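Duplicate of #3305? Posting structure anyway:
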C-alpha cells in the first residue's frame, strides 16, 4: 500500500471500526461543552421560577416535563430506556459481554427552590453526552453502560434526599417512605402514581426498584459540579473524589439547621410547638455521631431550662461511603490522558454516589463552579469545565466498561 493509501485507509478505519478502551484516547473524543450547555439551558426552562432560577420539585409538572426531555436526550444518545416504579430513569448501552456487571453513571435533575441549572443536571446530560462521544469515536463497551437520572436527590418534597439511589441500594424501607408525606399530606406512592410511576404500596415500589442482590453493578461514577471553591481557587480542571483523604480533621464536619416549623404559625399567637430539622454530616461516622450526641444533650438542657417538653427523632443516619479505588484510578488515568490538571477532593455534600457506593465501587468527578456557589440562581460552570468533565467521564466509562473489538493494525 502506498503511504497515502495507508493514511486514507487508517482514517476510514477510524470512522468505522469499533475501538477498544485501550485504543481510545482523549483526542478522539469529540465533545462540545457549548452544546451540553445549550441542553442544560433548555432543561432549565422546566422550572416553576423564571430563569436563571430553577425550581423543580419531584413529580411536579416541571419535573415531569424535565423527565420527558431527559428521555429524549437519552434516546438521541442511542440509549435504551427503562424506568422503575420510583421514577429512576435508566438509559442502557448494551455491552458485548452479557454476563458482566453494569458500569453506571448518573445524577439528578430535581432542583430545590430558586437554585441553579448545573447541580445534578451536568451528571445526567453529561452522561448522555459522554455516551454519544464514545459511540462517535467508534468505541463499543464489553460491559453494559447505563446512564441514570435518579429520583429526588433533593429532600425538598418528602424531607428525605437521595430517595432514588437509597431505593436502588436497598437502604430505604417502606416505613420511612410512609412516614414522610409532603406538605399537603401526599405520600410518595401517590405522587409517583400521579406522575405515571409507582405501584400499589411502598413495598412494591421498593421491590421494583431494588438493585441490591438483583443485578450485578461493577462500578458507579458521578459527574457533578464541585459545590465548593477549591478547584477554582487552585486552577484545577477536575476534582477526583478520593478515599485516601478520609482521615482529616474537624473541617469535615458540616452542620445545617435547615427547616423550622412553628405551630400555630401565625402572627398573633405564641407557638405551642416548634420543630427544627438539623442535618449533620461528616466523612467520619463516629465523629458525626459525637456531634449528634452533643446536639441531643444541648436540646435536652435547653428544654429543661425553658421547662418545655422535647423529642428528638432521627430521620436518617447513613454511613459515610468511601470511593472505590478502581473507579478513582480510572478517573485519575483519564484525567492524565487528557492532559488536565486535577486535585483530590473529599465530598462533603450528599450525592447519589454515596448510596451507590453501598452496592458497587463508586467515585465522583468534580468540575469547578464559579466561587463554589451552588443551590442559587447564579450557579455557573463554564462550557470548557463541562467539556473537560464529560471527556473525563467518557474515558472513565470506557476504562471501566472494558475492551470493545480489538483491531490489529500492525499489518497495515
Ligand atoms: C401543595 O398544595 C399547594 C396548594 O394547592 C400547592 O401550591 C403546592 O404546589 C402543593 N405542593 C406540592 C408539593 O404539590
Ligand atoms: Zn446535586
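Output from current build:
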Amino acid at each position: 500500500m502506498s503511504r497515502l493509501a495507508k493514511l486514507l485507509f487508517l482514517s476510514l478505519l477510524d470512522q468505522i471500526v469499533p475501538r477498544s478502551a485501550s485504543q481510545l484516547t482523549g483526542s478522539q473524543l469529540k465533545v462540545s461543552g457549548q452544546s451540553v450547555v445549550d441542553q442544560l439551558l433548555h432543561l432549565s426552562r422546566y422550572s416553576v421560577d423564571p430563569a436563571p432560577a430553577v425550581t423543580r420539585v419531584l413529580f411536579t409538572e416541571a419535573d415531569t416535563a424535565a423527565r420527558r426531555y431527559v428521555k429524549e436526550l437519552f434516546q438521541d444518545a442511542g440509549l435504551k430506556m427503562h424506568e422503575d416504579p420510583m421514577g429512576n430513569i435508566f438509559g442502557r448501552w448494551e455491552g458485548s459481554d452479557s454476563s458482566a456487571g453494569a458500569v453506571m453513571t448518573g445524577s439528578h435533575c430535581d432542583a430545590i427552590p430558586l437554585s441553579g441549572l448545573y447541580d445534578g443536571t451536568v451528571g445526567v446530560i453529561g452522561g448522555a453526552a459522554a455516551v454519544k462521544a464514545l459511540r462517535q469515536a467508534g468505541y463499543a463497551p464489553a460491559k453494559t453502560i447505563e446512564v441514570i437520572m435518579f429520583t429526588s436527590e433533593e429532600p425538598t418534597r418528602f424531607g428525605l434526599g437521595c430517595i432514588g439511589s437509597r431505593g436502588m441500594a436497598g437502604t430505604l424501607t417502606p416505613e420511612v417512605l410512609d412516614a414522610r408525606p409532603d406538605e399537603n399530606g401526599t405520600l410518595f406512592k401517590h405522587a409517583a402514581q400521579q406522575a405515571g410511576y409507582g405501584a400499589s404500596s411502598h413495598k412494591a415500589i421498593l421491590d421494583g426498584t431494588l438493585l441490591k442482590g438483583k443485578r450485578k453493578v461493577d462500578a458507579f461514577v458521578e459527574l457533578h459540579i464541585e459545590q465548593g471553591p477549591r478547584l477554582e481557587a487552585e486552577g484545577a480542571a477536575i476534582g477526583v473524589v478520593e478515599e485516601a483523604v478520609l482521615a482529616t480533621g474537624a473541617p469535615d464536619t458540616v452542620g445545617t439547621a435547615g427547616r423550622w416549623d412553628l405551630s400555630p404559625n401565625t402572627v398573633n399567637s405564641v407557638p405551642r410547638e416548634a420543630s427544627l430539622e438539623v442535618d449533620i454530616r461528616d466523612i467520619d461516622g463516629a465523629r458525626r455521631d459525637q456531634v449528634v450526641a452533643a446536639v441531643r444533650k444541648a436540646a435536652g438542657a435547653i428544654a429543661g431550662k425553658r421547662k418545655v417538653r422535647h423529642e428528638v427523632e432521627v430521620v436518617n443516619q447513613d454511613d459515610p461511603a468511601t470511593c472505590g479505588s478502581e473507579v478513582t484510578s480510572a478517573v485519575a488515568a483519564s484525567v492524565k490522558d487528557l492532559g488536565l490538571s486535577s486535585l483530590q477532593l473529599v465530598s462533603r455534600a450528599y450525592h447519589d454516589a454515596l448510596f451507590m457506593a453501598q452496592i458497587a465501587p463508586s467515585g465522583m468527578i468534580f468540575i469547578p463552579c464559579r466561587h463554589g456557589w451552588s443551590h442559587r440562581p447564579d450557579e455557573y460552570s463554564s462550557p470548557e469545565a463541562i467539556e473537560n468533565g464529560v471527556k473525563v467521564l467518557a474515558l472513565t466509562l470506557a476504562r471501566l466498561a472494558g475492551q470493545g473489538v480489538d483491531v490489529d493494525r500492525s499489518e497495515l
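Confirmed duplicate; merging threads. Residues 108, 119-120, 153, 224 surround zinc ion (ligand 2) (CB under 6 Å). The chain has two domains: 13-244+322-411, 254-306.
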